[in-house]
Amino acid sequence: MPHAAADESSVAACPLTHQVRMICKLKNIEPLIMPFNIQKKSKEFLEINSTGKVPVLVHQLNPDEALVLDDPLLIAKYLEERFPNPPIRSNNREAIVAGSNIFQKFCALIKNNDPAKDPGLQTALLKKLEELNSFLLGSDSSFMESDSLRFSDCSLLPKLLLVRVAAKELKGLEIPGKFEGVWDYIHAGEKQVVFRDTCPSDELIKEHWSRKFATVPLLEGYERKL
C-alpha cells in the first residue's frame, strides 16, 4: 500500500514508495498496488497496519497468516531474502556515504516557507550534489556500485528525480550542468525500464511537493545499509 496522490487513485511522488516499486520490478515481483490516503486512515487499514505508515508491504503467507512490514528498509531486506535473484544488496560503504543526506537537504529546502533562508538551503543541497558528483566522476561503473542497479540506486534515483523536478519548479534550483557525473547517472537511470515504469509524472511530483506540509518523512533511507 503506497501513499496516494491527491486524486486518491494514483501513487504519490514518494521516493520511499518508488524505491520499493523499483526493487519489486527488479526482482520480477508483481504486487497488487493499492494507493492509500494516509489522511483518511480507515479502521480496516489500521487493523492491518496499526502504525498507519506507508508504504506498507502485506505478504499473504497462507490463508490465515500475513506478514506486514511498514519500514522501507525492512521491506527491501525481506524482498532480498525472500527473492534473492537478482541480488541487489549494497556492499560499497563509500557509495552509500556519497549519496547520503541529499533527500534531507531537499526536504529542508522544499518545505521552507521563509524566502530569506532559501539561498543557504540551496547551497547545502548543492554541496551534497557536488560530493555525489565527485564520487560518480571517479567511478568506472554506470551506477553507484556496478553496471547494474542495486539497492543504493533504487534509493538514490527516486530522490534525484525529485530534486530535478520539484526543486527546479518550486524553488528555482537546477542541478548544475557542470555536475556531469550526476547528470550521466540520472540519464543512465532513465534508460532503465525498472526506473521509467515506476516513475511518477512530473505533474504528480509538483502536485505532491507543492503541498504546504508534504507527508514524506524527513529521513534518509539511503544511509541505512541493506
From TrEMBL:
Q: Which domain of life is it from?
A: Eukaryota
MF term (GO), any: chloride channel activity
List the source organism: Pocillopora damicornis
Pfam families in the cross-refs: GST_N_3 (PF13417)
Gene3D superfamilies for the chain: 1.20.1050.10, Glutaredoxin
Record's PROSITE patterns? GST_NTER
User: This chain belongs to which protein, by name?
Assistant: GST N-terminal domain-containing protein
| GO CC annotations on file | cytoplasm; membrane
Give all residue intervals belonging to the GST N-terminal domain. 4-87
